[in-house]
Write a structure and sequence with these properties.
The protein has 98 residues and is mostly helical. The chain is built from 3 helices and no strands.
């Protein structure tokens, strides 16, 4: 495993670990998810450059577009949650209380 692959895998695992540990605020969870998406973007970009396969060259751009959609949806949920509940604590949210 090259140092680049190790760094990208460590970054992704750090995002998963941060998301599982820092579950108090919605902002911290969204930042961890965004870090995971950026690590995936870098992984797919380096793999597509190394493989020289024309069928996967558009994959990083599609992942970046999905990441932007995910970030905008997350921010919309953050604004809606802070308006209705007054804060962004995740323990206040319940799926049963819509």
């Amino acid at each position: 495993m090259t140092p680049m692959h190790f760094t990208l895998n460590s970054t992704f695992m750090l995002g998963i670990t941060g998301m599982s540990i820092q579950r108090t605020h919605l902002v911290s969870v969204l930042l961890c998810i965004e870090g995971m998406m950026l690590a995936l973007f870098m992984m797919i970009s380096t793999f597509s450059i190394n493989l020289h396969n024309p069928s996967i060259t558009s994959s990083p751009i599609m992942l970046l577009a999905f990441s932007a959609c995910e970030a905008s949806t997350g921010l919309a949920l953050l604004v809606a949650t802070s308006r209705t509940h007054g804060n962004d604590h995740l323990h206040n949210l319940s799926i049963l209380q819509c």
